[in-house]
Amino acid sequence: MPDPDPKKLITKHPLKLSSPSSRPPSRPTSRPTSPQAPRATTKPGLRRELRAARRALSDTQQQRHAAQLTHNVASTLLTLRFDRFALYLPADGEINTWPLLNKLLALDMQVGLPCLRKKPTGDLRMHFTHYIPTTPLVNGHYDLLEPPPSANVRSHFVPNIMLLPLVSFDAEGHRLGMGGGFYDRYANPMERTQPALRIGLAHELQGLPADQRLPADPWDIPLDGVITEERVMGFSRRGQACLRQESA
Q1: Strand, helix or coil at 100?
Q2: Adjacency order of strands within the sheet including 225-227
């Protein structure tokens, strides 16, 4: 599996950990905007097309999407008994998760951020490190923000819910990532007894039309659900049970 292209991964340190707007998010529409069918059909082609689409969003659109996403997560997942959230920091036009991170910390939830570390074999592997507001962040592999190796507070954080980045998703819960396979290869020590719920976070425009499917490989792990700025979707039986509440 190819590694992600680091050339277009752009990260920004936030000016402050605060919600992008003091105004409450607008109510998501009951009938979400139907995604346009991408012209590409291969994984590399879909990545190029959909990454370009999300990078083309304006700052105002990104701000609005972030507020609505945080609202949708809060009205569903935060009403359940999850307390150890794996979350990512946004790059390359991904939906902004800083307001959501702020919300989780304000509610005293435990949050783990992904870190890429080289094994003795030279292979990169991902694990999650416990994050608190005083945890420093550095630019790691692919110029992505992550806690440094010295941040060993509750190192190897074990989540009971994973909020995943993605490039695209389809109506059956297939996820298209950046191509490195880090989330698919992530070894959760509790996976056999207490598997973490896997929920993708995305802009609505990253979803494929209902009749279109992503090309899937045997190693791809499907999502339990997806949350966008417009809607909440459960795919697996567990995901449907957890996300059965409508966004309000």
Answers
A1: helix
A2: 124-131, 110-118, 84-86, 161-164, 197-201, 225-227, 232-234
The model carries a pTM of 0.80
pLDDT (tens digit, 9 = 90+) per residue, 22-52?
344 444 433 445 556 677 788 999 999 999 9
Whether residue 167 is contained in a domain is answered as yes
> Are 28 and 70 spatial neighbours (Cβ–Cβ below 8 Å)?
no
CA–CA separation, 230 and 72 (whole Å)? 8
| Number of compact structural domains in the chain | 1
State residue 19's pLDDT score. 35
Q: Distance (Å, rounded) from C-alpha 49 to C-alpha 227?
A: 21
| 214 contacts 174 by C-beta, under 8 angstroms | yes
Residue 30 resides in a domain: no
Residue 198 to residue 132: CA distance in whole angstroms: 22
Rounded to an integer, what distance in angstroms lies between the CA atom of residue 8 and that of residue 24? 32
Residue-range definition of the domain harbouring residue 119: 39-242
Instruction: Judge whether 10 and 92 are in contact, CB under 8 Å.
Output: yes
Instruction: Tell me whether residue 43 is in a domain.
Output: yes
Residue 106 falls within a domain, yes or no?
A: yes
